[in-house]
Specification:
The protein is α/β, with parallel strands linked by helices and about 260 residues long. It is built from eight helices and seven strands; from the N terminus they run βαβαβαβαβαβαααβ. The structure holds nicotinamide-adenine-dinucleotide. Nicotinamide-adenine-dinucleotide binds next to helix 1, strand 2, helix 4 and helix 6. This is 3-hydroxybutyrate dehydrogenase.
Length: about 260
């Protein structure tokens, strides 16, 4: 049987990179992506390919632009022959009170964290329908289920991702294509690292206090989740064992949303 191909958006760092490694280790061809086109991006693809003995390509596409989102999927299919698993992971964050929230930051967060998943999903579904099998896995967030102050755009986008996830699941339910979301709590990645100075400013606290009392306040385990744990959840949702899991979300949040 031909190898399946997985496309992971925003995957030269953090959770996307962890998911790309996990999918490559599970035997998928993998397309990794970001908006840059540096030698190190292509080297990263070679590194993952060599480590897991599978096909890996880096394709540049800016997830804030609809035409580039769709082109990513078509280029992935042209490279490996199919798009079987789509992981919508690209995301950015910005923290400010809603009445001071810059409009351009709102627009960028909605475009990258939500609208990109609409475009990539719309472009990938014809390939999945043709193959009679597919997996759409959206990296949402505990903030798809709960709110925190100062994150209006991010919380709105992630709630939107869960709505998109459920709607797509219903539309393709009889085609052996599933659509699910993963809702991580805090995972210590560059995105989270970059929030710490803003949170320190917003809460007037030092780094350690912000981590303990603000970031991990709701995470009952008081531990960050890891990119490997999110990657393993992606691989599970892509597996045949998860064929009857669709239109739902799996929280990997150390008990945050149990509260
Ligand atoms: P990260 O900053 O390490 O990675 C984000 C990735 O998105 C990078 O590869 C970056 O290059 C890419 N990206 C950003 N803008 C892009 C664009 N315009 N086009 C293409 N790619 C773009 O962050 P992360 O923590 O790994 O976050 C990944 C996803 O997980 C995001 O959707 C984020 O909201 C979600 N998430 C993260 C956490 C966490 O605690 N880290 C928790 C819940 C959800």
């Amino acid at each position: 049987m031909a190898k399946k191909t997985a496309v992971v958006t925003g995957s030269n760092s953090g959770i996307g990179l962890g998911s790309a490694h996990a999918l490559a280790a599970a035997g998928y061809n993998v397309v990794i992506n970001s908006f840059t086109d540096r030698p190190e991006d292509h080297d990263l693809a070679k590194e993952i390919a060599a480590k897991h003995s599978t096909g890996v390509a880096y394709i540049k596409a800016d997830m804030s632009k609809g035409d580039e989102c769709r082109a990513l999927i078509d280029q992935a299919a042209a490279t490996f022959g199919s798009v079987d698993v789509l992981v919508n992971n690209a995301g950015i964050q910005f923290v400010a009170p809603v009445d001071e929230f810059p409009t351009e930051k709102w627009d960028a967060i909605i475009a990258i964290n939500l609208t990109s998943a609409f475009h990539t999903t719309a472009a990938a579904l014809p390939y999945m329908k043709k193959a009679g099998w597919g997996r759409i896995i959206n990296i949402a967030s505990a903030h798809g289920l709960r709110a925190s102050p100062f994150k209006s755009a991010y919380v709105a986008a992630k709630h939107g991702v869960l709505g998109l996830t459920k709607t797509v699941a219903l539309e393709v339910a009889e085609k052996h294509i599933t659509s699910n979301a993963i809702c991580p709590g805090y995972v210590l990645t560059p995105l989270v690292e970059a929030q710490i100075p803003d949170q320190m400013k917003a809460h007037n606290m030092d780094r350690e206090t912000v981590i303990r009392e603000v970031m991990l306040d709701k995470q009952a385990t008081k531990e960050f989740a890891t990119v490997d744990q999110i990657g393993a959840t992606v691989v599970f949702l892509a597996s045949d064992a998860a064929a009857q899991i669709t239109g739902t979300s799996i929280s990997v949040d150390g008990g945050w949303t149990a509260q």
